[in-house]
């Protein structure tokens, strides 16, 4: 897991973000991008019980809203009314 996948990650730009806990600047990927022991999974479709069958591009099926539809696994779910953490 990477900082980028953590609930405490605040995106700053396309290369880096900040940790809301320790206030460190952390990279999205590459060197030093691995998560720390305080990692908490971010609210994303990939972490939702209503997400299934992702293809090789991370596009899967959402069954948590009024109509079944496709969605990206990386979609931010912080405002989704159907989000249910796995
Ligand atoms: S809690 Fe750990 S894994 Fe999460 S953003 Fe902060 S340093 Fe990264
Ligand atoms: S219910 Fe919301 S968070 Fe869950 S898979 Fe569907 S769109 Fe994503």
Automatic annotation (TrEMBL):
Keyword Iron-sulfur: yes
One Gene Ontology molecular-function label: 4 iron, 4 sulfur cluster binding
Secretion signal span: none
Ranges where the 4-hydroxyphenylacetate decarboxylase small gamma subunit C-terminal domain occurs: 44-81
Keywords from the UniProt entry: 4Fe-4S, Iron, Iron-sulfur, Lyase, Metal-binding
Pfam families: 4HPAD_g_N (PF18671), HPIP_like (PF18524)
EC number(s) given by UniProt: 4.1.1.83
InterPro entries to which the protein is assigned, alphabetical: 2Fe2S_fd_BS (IPR006058), 4HPAD_g_N (IPR041125), HPA_decarboxylase_ss_sf (IPR053727), HpdC_C (IPR040923)
Cofactors named for this entry: [4Fe-4S] cluster
Boundaries of every 4-hydroxyphenylacetate decarboxylase small gamma subunit N-terminal domain copy: 1-31
Top enzyme class: lyase
Catalytic activity reported: 3,4-dihydroxyphenylacetate + H(+) = 4-methylcatechol + CO2; 4-hydroxyphenylacetate + H(+) = 4-methylphenol + CO2
Domain of life: Bacteria
Entry similarity comment: Belongs to the HPA decarboxylase small subunit family.
This protein's name: 4-hydroxyphenylacetate decarboxylase small subunit
């Amino acid at each position: 897991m990477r900082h980028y996948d953590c609930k405490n990650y605040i995106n700053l730009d396309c290369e880096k973000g900040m940790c809301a806990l320790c206030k460190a600047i952390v990279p999205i990927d590459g060197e030093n991008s691995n998560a720390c022991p305080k990692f908490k999974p971010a609210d994303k479709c990939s972490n939702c019980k209503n997400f299934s069958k992702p293809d090789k591009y991370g596009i899967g099926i959402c069954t948590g809203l009024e109509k079944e539809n496709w969605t990206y696994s990386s979609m931010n779910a912080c405002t989704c009314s159907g989000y249910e953490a796995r």
